[in-house]
Amino acid sequence: MRRFLKAVGLVSLASLITYLLDPDRGRARRARLADQLAAKGRDVSDAVSAKARYQKGVVEGVAHEVATAFAEEAVYDDATLLQKVRSEAMGPSGVDTDHVEVDIRDGNVRLTGAVSDAAARRRLVDFVGKVDGVRGINDTLTTTS
To answer: How far apart, in whole angstroms, are the C-alpha atoms of residue 132 and residue 25?
Structure first.
């Protein structure tokens, strides 16, 4: 059995050599084979590069999360914090804040005025609480419904 497999292998190798060294079309076959191998090499290289870029991004993301987890909370002056609350909480919350007043003292936010309902009140308070630098919330809002 081993002799048979060896003979089949040698015949296959001889056929390949004959195919590639054919005087009429061997040169074109060798060139096409070289182009195909080069293209496969580029495909593999591109795939490895893409995976490496992805993993680099994953590592950078983890490093950022670790760094921010151990970073101290930012301290903002009251005027800056007021602007942050207005831009990061009052607009994106989707609550009509035309009748809401915001007062800030030492990072503590005081909300006064009226909102449409209890759900809007909770949503606004939640959004204000998520603003970086807010230490506390004094909610004196009323509902109109």
So the answer is: 72
pLDDT digits 0-9 by tens, 16-61: 898 888 899 989 999 999 999 999 999 999 999 999 999 999 999 9
Q: How many residues does the chain have?
A: 145
Q: pTM for the whole thing?
A: 0.49
Nearest CA among 88, 91, 92, 98 for reference residue 130: 88
| Contact between residue 141 and residue 103 where contact means Cβ atoms under 8 Å apart | no
**How far does the chain reach from its first CA to its final CA, in angstroms?**
92
> Which residues, 6+ apart, have CB-to-CB distance to 84 below 8 Å?
76, 131, 132, 133
Distance CA 140, CA 86 (A): 17
Q: What is the distance between the alpha carbons of residues 108 and 85, in angstroms, rounded to a whole number?
A: 11
Measured CA to CA, the distance from residue 145 to residue 70 in angstroms comes to 43
DSSP state of 76: -
Tokens of 14: 């001889």
